[in-house]
Amino acid sequence: MVSDWGGLIQGFRYGNDWLVGLTGNVFSEGFYMGNAVGSFNSMMWLLTGLLGWLGIAWTLYPLLGDAFRDLAERSVRGVSVPKPSVTVQHGPHHR
Fold first, then answer.
1. Can you tell me the distance from the alpha carbon of 95 to that of 73, in angstroms, rounded to the nearest whole number?
2. Are 14 and 5 in contact (CB under 8 A)?
3. Quick one: which of 37, 44, 38 has its CA closest to 13?
4. Does residue 14 contact residue 33 with C-beta atoms inside 8 Å?
5. Where are the domains of the chain?
6. What pLDDT, on a 0 to 100 scale, did the predictor assign at position 66?
7. Sign (positive or negative) of CA dihedral 15, 21, 22, 23
């Protein structure tokens, strides 16, 4: 976090000097520096974004499945499903 105080174009994550040492500088400078498409930073942003959305989907999918299953069981049994309490206000052109 301290390294980010220098702004977006300075600090620990921008130049990735640690990664240069780790990989022996086998990739081009564009891979290590900045956040252009194809750089290490852009790939990590994509990976962490996908993992984040996977976590959200993994959490919500079972909850939605349970809710829709309950709704389907109620409709099959003939139990009335409560209507939403929100009423839709139509504009002056609708009656």
1. 35
2. no
3. 44
4. yes
5. 2-77
6. 86
7. positive
Residue where the block lists tokens 């390294």: 3
Contact (CB, 8 A) for 16 and 10:
no
* Token representation of residue 76: 């099959």
The alpha carbon dihedral of 59, 57, 37, 6 has a sign of negative
pLDDT (tens, 9 = 90+) of the chain, 95 residues, equals 455 555 556 666 667 888 898 999 999 988 888 888 999 989 999 999 999 999 999 998 888 888 888 888 877 777 665 666 666 566 666 55
Amino acid 40 reads F
CA distance linking residue 54 with residue 38, whole number of Å: 22
What pLDDT is recorded for position 1?
Answer: 45
| Alpha-carbon distances of 10 from 3, 4, 20, 42, 52, rounded to whole Å | 8, 7, 16, 16, 26
